[in-house]
């Protein structure tokens, strides 16, 4: 089993990936309501990868797969050092490219992005930008919070050393008294 720090990194990465995926899902819901996204890609992926499922099972599978993939990508983001917002947006766009120009067309779920419906792809790009931005903002907040905790611990250590030094000086003064 890994160290507590490794477990914490996995949990933190999965949690930030989940939050970012929920934010991205909001973008996709808005795009679908505006008629820009006829079938969400996670649904097309599950439908293609697991033929014969009922519509309800495809819908549930798409939700689970999307949240799981986003959480796993959050763990990878954390393992890569969890860059700030700009680097994380690039990370989100990298996920988009690897998926929609890579494994998704290979699976046969959708055509490559450059050949696909432009409205769907614009929606997916926007969603991945939001995903990356949320990851980056959460990573930056986590780093700021960690710095505050480290600073507080250092201040407490210095106060304790100072008190110890004062106590030693007082003890030495009593021992030196005639």
Task: Characterise the protein shown here.
With 178 residues, the chain is mostly helical. It has one domain (4-136). The protein has helices spanning 4-33, 41-49, 55-79, 85-107, 118-176. Helix 1 packs antiparallel against helix 5, helix 2 packs across helix 3 (55-79) and helix 4 (85-107) crosses helix 5 (118-176). The protein is elongated, with a radius of gyration of 25 Å.
Q: Which terms summarize this structure?
A:
elongated, mainly alpha
Low-confidence stretches: none
Distance between the first and last residues' Cα: 61 Å
Main beta sheet, described? none
Tally of individual domains: 1
DSSP helical segment count: 5
Share of helical residues: over 70%
- Principal-axes geometry comes out as elongated
Instruction: Tell me the total number of β-strands.
Output: 0
Question: What is the string of helix and strand elements?
Answer: HHHHH
Summarize the structure.
With 178 residues, this protein is mainly α. Helix content is 82%, strand content 0%. The chain has one domain (4-136).
What's the structural blueprint in terms of helices and strands?
Layout: H1 4-33, H2 41-49, H3 55-79, H4 85-107, H5 118-176
